[in-house]
Design brief:
globular; 4 helices
């Protein structure tokens, strides 16, 4: 079964806190699912793109916090169903009904 994460809000991308924010936990999970290291980072970016993120590796999520929160929440919902990298890719690749 998958993992559960707190909802990501647009405000999260402008917060300064010592506690990890939901999107950071999701980023860590995606990087791990992708095999860690540069492969994991590439996988994370691929999943974010599939979820609707328009930025690239160098684009700050704070530049488009609404778009970033939508992408992360789409991934968050899919991660409830699976913790397998290929299954997540398939879930995000399915068109909305």
């Amino acid at each position: 079964m998958g993992q559960t994460f707190a909802e990501v809000s647009a405000d999260d991308f402008s917060k300064i806190t010592l506690d990890p924010l939901p999107h950071q936990a999701i980023e860590t999970a995606l990087t791990t699912m992708g095999g860690g290291g540069s492969h994991g980072v590439d996988y994370k970016l691929e999943m974010l793109k599939m979820a609707g993120w328009k930025g690239n590796k160098l684009t700050s999520f704070a530049k488009d916090p609404e778009g970033a929160s939508k992408a992360f929440n789409k991934i968050r919902k899919a991660l409830k169903k699976t913790d397998n990298a290929d299954d997540l890719r398939n879930l995000l690749d399915k068109p909305k009904k």
